[in-house]
Design a protein that fits this description.
The complex is a heterodimer of chains A (111) and B (110). Chain A is an all-beta fold. Chain A has one domain: Immunoglobulin-like, CATH 2.60.40. Helices cover 0% and strands 54% of the residues of chain A. Chain A contains no helices and eleven strands. In chain B, a hairpin with a 2-residue loop joins strand 6 and strand 7. The relative contact order of chain B is 0.34. Chain B is built from no helices and twelve strands. Helices cover 0% and strands 57% of the residues of chain B. Chain B is globular. With 110 residues, chain B is mostly beta strands. The termini of chain B are far apart. Chain B has one domain: Immunoglobulins (Immunoglobulin-like, Sandwich). Classes of the chains: A mainly beta (111), B mainly beta (110).
C-alpha cells in the first residue's frame, strides 16, 4: 500500500536557525497537505499543495511540492519557540478524502 | 471556524468494557474519520464515514465499530476494550480541503 515517509524523525535546532523536513511518497500524489501538532495538542491543518513544482509561503514557512508530485518539503526560516511541535505531511489515498499521514518530524528548539 | 468536539479528553476504562467515543462537527461536512495516534506509529485510520449510515474500514478496524446516524455525529465503539487499545483517539472531519481534528481522547484501558 501507499507509504509516506518523513525525514528526519527528530530535529533539534537553536532558536533562530532554519529547519527543513522532507516528505516522500511511494506513489504519485494528487495533492499534499501539511499539519502541525503542538505538544499535547491535536494536528492542525497548515496548507495544501496541488500543482507540480508548487511553492507556497506562510510568513517564515515555505512549502514545496516536487515536480514528480511524489515529494514535498517544509522549510522554516529563523525558528522561534512557537514553532515547536511535530510536522506531518499527508497524501490522499483512494477517494472520499482519506489521507495517509507521514511519520512526522518532531522539532524542538534550544533557546 | 469548523469545530470538531470530542466528548471526553481523558477516559479510563476496564478491560472488557464497551466504550463509546463521541465526535460532533458543526459544519455539515460529509466526511468524518477516526484515527488513533501512538508513539512511533503515527496516525492510523480506524474507520471513516462519507455520509450518514455509510462507513468503511480503515487500516486497523479490528476491535472497533462505528455509528453515524446523523451527519454531525460519528461515534467510535470499542466492543470489548483491551489494554492494547490504550491510545490517543482523534476524530476529524473534512470537505474538499484539509482535515479539522478534535482535541482528542486519551483512553487508558486497565
Amino acid at each position: 500500500g501507499q507509504q509516506v515517509m518523513q525525514i528526519p524523525q527528530y530535529q533539534h535546532v537553536q532558536e533562530g536557525e532554519d529547519f527543513t523536513t522532507y516528505c516522500n511518497s511511494s506513489t504519485t500524489l494528487s495533492n499534499i497537505q501539511w499539519y502541525k501538532q503542538r505538544p499535547g495538542g491535536h494536528p492542525v491543518f497548515l496548507i495544501q499543495l496541488v500543482k507540480s513544482g508548487e511553492v507556497k509561503k506562510q510568513k517564515r514557512l515555505t512549502f514545496q511540492f516536487g515536480e514528480a508530485k511524489k515529494n514535498s518539503s517544509l522549510h522554516i526560516t529563523a525558528t522561534q519557540t512557537t514553532d515547536v511541535g511535530t510536522y506531518f505531511c499527508a497524501g490522499p489515498r483512494g477517494g472520499n478524502e482519506k489521507l495517509t499521514f507521514g511519520t512526522g518530524t518532531r522539532l524542538t528548539i534550544i533557546p | 471556524d469548523v469545530k470538531v468536539t470530542q466528548s471526553s479528553r481523558y477516559l479510563v476504562k476496564r478491560t472488557g468494557e464497551k466504550v463509546f467515543l463521541e465526535c460532533v462537527q458543526d459544519m455539515d461536512h460529509e466526511n468524518m474519520f477516526w484515527y488513533r495516534q501512538d508513539p512511533g506509529l503515527g496516525l492510523r485510520l480506524i474507520y471513516f464515514s462519507y455520509d450518514v449510515k455509510m462507513k468503511e474500514k480503515g487500516d486497523i478496524p479490528e476491535g472497533y465499530s462505528v455509528s453515524r446516524e446523523k451527519k454531525e455525529r460519528f461515534s467510535l465503539i470499542l466492543e470489548s476494550a483491551s489494554t492494547n487499545q490504550t491510545s490517543m483517539y482523534l476524530c476529524a472531519s473534512s470537505y474538499l480541503s484539509g482535515y479539522t481534528f478534535g482535541s482528542g481522547t486519551r483512553l487508558t484501558v486497565v
